[in-house]
Give the backbone structure.
Amino acid sequence: MNLPESSRLQLTPDLNICRVLNGMWQVSGAHGRIDRKAAIQNMFNYMDAGFTTWDLADHYGPAEDLIGEFRHQLVATRGEAALSNLQAFTKWCQDQPK
């Protein structure tokens, strides 16, 4: 099933997101072992169905690592242009040099 065009929201001139975000709280650690290969395959399945927007939060354990590997595999299998359809929101902040 692919989502209809009405499932998209134009937030800014250069930011168009899916109205339903894929929350990655399930990978925060409290829900059991994560099969990384299966998780990334599921991310491809969601993306192909039109669910292109991901909520990573800073306390969702390996969410940033998973989206990073997903992005790497997306580029490797579908090319750099495929990233234009992917949105990932996080609050991750590096330590600032002193």
